[in-house]
Amino acid sequence: MDMQADILKVIREHSWGGGPESSISQLIWSSNITWATLKKLLPELIQSGLITNTRKKSPKVLRNFYSLTPKGRDVLHHYEELSRMLDRP
């Protein structure tokens, strides 16, 4: 669950250009998760309803961008709350 939470955090905090979305490149750079691992985790997060995928055409290629859903924000909030509670002495 830690890697999934890291992906959700990156999408929330480091969205490309300050917008509501993150690109694959942004996810790889900011989460330190490999492309191979992201290829496995992103579909799971989409299927769970935690993120959405939008395909946008740039001048040369079709690019994927990922956004948090309200459910994704809630799950991340509860995950961070639980992590804080477990880290307390």
Write a structural description:
There is one protein chain. This protein is an alpha+beta fold and 89 residues long. The protein has one domain (2-87): Arc Repressor Mutant, subunit A, CATH 1.10.10. It contains 4 helices and 3 strands, in the order H-E-H-H-E-E-H. It has a 3-stranded antiparallel beta sheet with strand order 1-3-2. Helix 1 crosses helix 2 (24-31) and helix 1 packs across helix 4. The longest helix is centred in the C-terminal third of the chain and has 18 residues, at 70-87. The radius of gyration is 13 Å and the shape is globular. It starts with a helix and ends with a helix.
Question: Main traits of this protein?
Answer:
single chain, 89 residues, alpha+beta, Arc Repressor Mutant, subunit A
